[in-house]
## 1
Amino acid sequence: MFDLLGISAPAFFGQLLIGVINGSFYALLSLGLAVIFGMLHIINFVHGAQYMLGAFTALLLLNYLGIGYWWSLLLAPLIVGAFGIVLERVFLRHLYKLDHVYGLLLTFGIALVIEGTFREFFGSSGQPYGIPPELAGVQNLGFMFLPNYRAWVIVASLVVCFGTWFMIERTRLGSYLRAATENPALVQAFGINVPLMVSLTYGFGVALAAFGGVLAAPIYQVSPLMGINIIIVVFAVVVIGGMGSILGAVVTGFVLGVVEGLTKVFYPEASSTVIFVVMVLVLLTRPTGLFGRA
Amino acid sequence: MTDTPTALLRVSDLHAYYGESHILHGVNFEVQEGELLCLVGRNGAGKTTTLKSIMGMIPQRTGSIVYAGNETIRLSSHRIARLGISFCPEERGIFASLTVSENMLLPPVIHPGGMDLDEIYELFPNLRERARSQGTKLSGGEQQMLAIGRILRTGTKLLLLDEPTEGLAPVLIQQIGASIRALKSKGYTILLVEQNFRFAERVADRFCVMEHGRIVDTIPVEELEGRRAELHEHLGV
Ligand SMILES: Nc1ncnc2c1ncn2[C@@H]1O[C@H](COP(=O)(O)OP(=O)(O)OP(=O)(O)O)[C@@H](O)[C@H]1O
Ligand SMILES: [Mg+2]
C-alpha cells in the first residue's frame, strides 16, 4: 500500500507519531482554554505564555534547586497556576461584565510582557532539558521505533484530558462548575462561593498549560518563543472544536495533530496551513464549531 | 409573660437600586418563625427585588436585613445562604447542563435536618421517574417542583418562593398548594410572592401589600373577609 502511494512506511508512521504528539499538546492547551472560557468567558491569550512558563519553571527548578522532572511535573503547574490565580484576582476579575474583547486584549498584553521579559533574560534561542532517565530508550514496534518519552507524553495527555472531562461532566464539583457557567448568581445564592470557584477554575486552566509546558520541555527546546509558536494553532483548534466544549477541545486537538502530521507525508507544502484551511471550512459550515452549541 | 412570636427575618428601611434606578424605597416588614407571609402587589411593584435583596443578589442595597439575629446587608449571597435562607426564583432557574438529579443535588446541605431525597420524591412523585433527564426537558410544572424540591434538602429554615404557581395548570397549582401546606406543617418559615390571590389566601397567614417599592398595607388572614375590597383595590383586580 505504501509503495503505491509512493511513500515509505517508516516515514508515514514517523509523521503519524509526530502528529499524535503535537495533538497531545493541542488537546491539553485547548482543553485549558475551553475550561477557562466556559467559566470566565475570557479568551485567555496568555495561555501560550503560561505553557512557556511551565517549561521554564521546570528548567529553573532544575538549574537552581536541582529539582528533577517528576517533581517539576507537579510543582510547575502549582506554581504557574498560583500565578494565574493572582492574575485573575488582580486583573481579570474586573472584566467579566465587559465585552470579550477586553479580556482578549488584556491577556494578549500580559502575554507580550511575560514573553518579552523572558526574551530579555534568556535570549530567544532554546535551552535543552533532558529526558528523565526512567523514560530514556526506545521501543521497537516492528514497523517503527517509538521513543519511550513520546509514548509517555501521549499517555499523560490522554489521562489528564480524560480526568478533566470526568471531573467536569461526572462529579458533584463538576455540576457546580457547569451550573455556575449557566447562572452564577443563582449558584452563589445556593451557598457556593462562586468567586472563589472562578479563581480556582482559572488557576486550574493555567496549570493545565504549565503541565503541557513541562511535558514539552524534553521534546522541544525550552524557549521564550515556544508559547507563541503553538498558541496560534491551538486557537484554531479551539475555533474548530467550538469554544467552551470540553470533549470537543480534546478530540479536535488530537485529530488535528494527526491531520497536520499526515499532511506532511502527502503534501508537505500544506502542512503548516492545513489546520487553518480546516478552520475556514468549519467556520463557513458550522460557525459554532464542530462540538459547539449555538 | 406571654409568648411573643420572634421575628426570624426583619427587614427595615430597605432600599435597592439597579444602576441609576431606585426600586425599593424603604421596605419594612417582619416574618415570624413558622409563619407564611405573602407579598402581593402589581407587576413591577418590587416583590422580586425584595426577595433578591434578602438573598444578597442585588449588589446595591442599603438599610437593614436581620436574619436569626445576623445583620446580612453587607454579606455576599453565598454567606447569606449559609445562614439558612433558600431561594426559589421566579424563572425557576433549572440548569440545562445538569440532569434532574444533579439539579436536585446542587444546593449544598447547610444544616442537618433537611428533607432526604425520598421525602422530596414523595412530595413530588413525577420527579423520581425523570431523574436522569436533562433538567430543562421537564414540563413547566415539573420544573417548578424541582425548583422547590431541591431547596428542601438543604436544611434551611426560611424559604423565599417567587411566584411558584405562575403559568401552571389548576391541578398543578393544587399540588403545589398541598406541598406548601406540608412544608408549613414541617415548621418551615416561608416568604411567598404570589399574584394568584385565590391560591395565596389558602396558604398564607398574613399579607403584605407592596406598591412602588414600599409596603403599604399588612392584612392578617383573619381580617381578610372584611378587607377584601381594600385589597382588591391595591391589586387593581
Ligand atoms: N435587572 C434589572 N435592571 C433594571 N431594572 C430592573 C431589573 N429588574 C427589575 N427591574 C425593575 O424594577 C422594578 C421592580 O421589579 P420586580 O421584578 O422587583 O417587580 P415584581 O414586583 O417582582 O414584578 P412581577 O410581578 O412582574 O414579577 C420594575 O420596574 C422593573 O422594571
Ligand atoms: Mg417578580
Note: The pocket of adenosine-5'-triphosphate (ligand 1) is lined by residues B 18, 21, 23, 41, 43-49, 90, 195 (CB under 6 Å).
## 2
Amino acid sequence: MAAPATDRAGSGGQGPSNGPSNITLAKALNDGLRAAMEGDDKVILMGEDIGKLGGVFRITDGLQKDFGEQRVLDTPLAESGIIGTAIGLALRGFRPVCEIQFDGFVFPGFDQIVSQLSKLRYRSQGKLPMRLVVRIPFGGGIGAVEHHSESPESLFAHVAGLKVVACSNAADAYWMIQQAIDSDDPVIFFEPKRRYWEKSELDTSVKPRPLHTSRVLRTGSAATVVAYGPMVRTVLDAAAAADCELEVIDLRTLSPLDLAPVFDAVRRTGRLVCVAEAPGESSITAEVAARVQQECFYSLEAPVLRVTGFDTPYPPSKCEEYYLPDLDRVLDAVDRVLAH
Amino acid sequence: MPSPPHEPPSWRQHASGTHAAATAVEAEPSAEQVIAGLRATSEGGVQLLNPEGERVSHPDFDLEISAAELKSLYRDMVLVRRVDREGNALQRQGQLGIWVPLLGQEAAQIGAGRAMAPQDMAFPSYREHGIAWCRGVDPTELLGVWRGTDHGSWDPNDTGFQLYTIVIANQCLHATGYAMGQRFEGMIGDSETGEATICFFGDGATSQGDVHESFVWAAVYDAPVLFFCQNNQWAVSEPTERQSRVPLYRRAQGYGFPGIRVDGNDVLATLAVTRWALEECRTGNGPVLIEAFTYRMDAHTTSDDATRYRLAEELEAWKLRDPIERVRVHLVREGLAGQDFFDGVAAESDELAQRVRSHAEAMPQPGPERIFSEVYAEASPPVQAQREEFLAYHATFVDTEEPLAGSSIDTEEPLAGSSIDTAGDR
Ligand SMILES: Cc1ncc(C[n+]2csc(CCOP(=O)(O)OP(=O)(O)O)c2C)c(N)n1
Ligand SMILES: [Mg+2]
C-alpha cells in the first residue's frame, strides 16, 4: 500500500498556491471543491462516507472538518435518496454536489436523474433551474470487483437536459468542477478514477477555457485521435510512441459535444481514431464517428475507427487488461487508418 | 410472535421533542455511550449464552443443545474465522485484489447458516463467507471474486447459496421474488419439507429503497422470506445512527410482520431465533425480520482504514463480547470439551487455511475468451465478431503469455482492490 490517503488528496485546509504547481488530479478536485464552497455558501456536498472518511478516494478530505456537517453531509446509504433530496435542496436554492461512490452505484439514483433532474427546467419552462452536480468516479484498470470499473457516460449523454463532462488532468479537474458547480444546468461530472493519483501541472493564474469545449492537446498531420477521461493519458502515451505525428484531442465535454476542433483536425489529417473504455455500441465514440462522417465525408481518407471496451459486461478484473484499450490497440488502429 | 425485546438505551433513541437539538451536531459516541450500546444487546436482544460463557434462559427461545452440536458450532466458527484471516493475509500478500472480512460476525452467520434446511435458499450480500460455509460452498470457491478471476464460481442452484451481490440491497428484492415463487408453487406449509428463503443485508443497506420495496412485497404476498440484517454497527465509515432513528428490528412492525433483535455474537441465540423464524416462513407465517446485533471487528475491507472514523475503545469493548471465546469458555467450564478437542480444531483450521492458500496461489489467469463467454444465450453476431477479432489480435502477442500485471490504484475503497504487483508504482 502506498502512503496514507491523507497525504495524497488531503489539503490540510490549504487551497492551491497561486501559480504553477504539480499536483494529483484528486488533490485538484479537493482544491476545486474547497474553492467553490468558499465562494458560495449554498454549495453543499452530499454522499456516502464523504465526511470523516473524506470519501473512499479522499476527494472531500478535510472539507467536513472545515465547513461543518451541514455543508458536507454523510448521507444514509441510498443513491436515489441522495439525488432526490439534492433536487429538493436545489429547488430551495442550494447548489448540491453529490458524490456517487462508484460508477456502478449510480443506478439506484438513475430514476431521479433521468426522470426529474434532467427535466425540471423544461417542465417549469425555466422557473426551476437544476443547479446540481453529480460526481462519478468512472472507468476500470484498478483491479476492482464488479460494479467498480464501469463507464456509463453514454447513458447520461443520451438524456436531454443533462450536461456531461469528463476531466483528464489536474488543471481541468480543478477548473471544471468549479465551472460545473457554477453552471445553471445539471452536470454529470465523470472523474477518471485510475488517474486520481497521477500528477500534472495546475497553474491557477491561467484562466480556464469554458466548460463545454474540447481541447487539442497535441497537433499532428498523420491522423487524429480523440479520447476523454482516463483514455487521454493512454492516447498521449501512444502518440509519444508512434512513428508518425498524431493530433490528439481531449473531448472534455460529452454532452453537448464540442466537435469543431475535431472536424478541423479531421479535415487536415483525413483520418480519425476514437478511443474510450466504454462499450462501443450506442456510445460517445459512435456519436463522434457519425457526426464526423456527416461533416467531413469528403476529407476522410479512411473509415473512422473506434478503439473501445467490448460490448460485454465489464469482465472479472484479471481480464481487464484485455478489455481496456491500451497503447498497442490504439497504435494498431492508427496503423489501420494509415494503411488506407 | 415472541414478546418484544426491551427498549434500547436512551442515547440510541431520539426523543422526538429534543431530536433537532440533540443531533444538530452529531457527536461522536463517547466511550460510555459505546458501553451503553453494548447494554442494548444484552437488554434488547435475545441472548442464550452471555459473553462470560454462561447459559441464560429466555422465555420464548429455549434451546436444547447437545455437547456434540455445541462443539460443532464452535468448530464452524473457528474454521470460518481462520479462512477469513487467511483471506486478509492473501490480500496483503498480493494474491487477492481485496478481501471483505467477516471477523466478529461468525456467530451471526454460523447461527443463521446452521438453522437453514437443505431445501432453503440464501441470498447473500458480499460478507457472508460463513453462510457459504454452512451451504457447503468450499472456501476456495469464494476466492475468484476477490482475486478477480470470476464473479462467483459456485452453483447457486446446487448449493442453495446465490451469488454475492455487491450493489447494496439489490438481492433483497430477488430473495423476495424467489420466496414468492416458493409460495406460488405450494412449497410452504409443512414444517419438515416446506421451503424458506433467507436474505442477508447490512445495517447500511436498510436505507435503500430496495429494502423498503422488499418489505412491502414480502408482506403483500405473504412471502416465506426471512430478512436477516447483520447490524455490525457500521456501513463503511457511517455508524447506524446515520441510517435510522429507531432500532432496525422495529422497522418490520410498520410493514406488518414481526421483527426481532438477537445478540448476533451469541451463536445459540442466533441459531434458536433463526430456526424459529425459518419455521414461521416454512409454515406460511412469513415474512420475518431478524436484526442480528453484532460488530464488524475489522475494517470494512482490506482497502479501508477504520482508524479514520471509529474509536479504538469501541473495538476493545466488543472484543469482550467475542462470539467464539464465549463458546470456548462455556465448553471448558462445563467440561464438555478437553484440550485435545481444541487442539484438533486448531490443527484442522491450519490445514484448511493452507488449502485455501495453495488454491489461491495456483489459480490460473483467465484468458481473454472469458470476456465474451455467456453474455447472451443466443450468440450476438457483433459480440462474436469482436471476440474473433480480439483473439486473432491477441494471438499476435504470443510471447507475452505470462499473467498480465494490472495497473493499480490504492483506492481505500469498500470493494475495489489494488491489483497485485504494481501497488507500489505510484
Ligand atoms: C448501491 C451501492 N452504493 C454504494 C456502495 C458502496 N458500498 C459498499 S459496502 C457499503 C456499506 C454497506 O454497509 P452495510 O449495509 O452496513 O453492510 P456491511 O458492509 O457493514 O456488511 C457501501 C456504501 C455499494 N456497494 N452499492
Ligand atoms: Mg454494516
Note: Residues A 48, 77, 79, 101, 105, 108; B 127, 166-168, 202-205, 232, 234-236, 296, 300, 414-415 surround thiamine diphosphate (ligand 1) (CB under 6 Å).
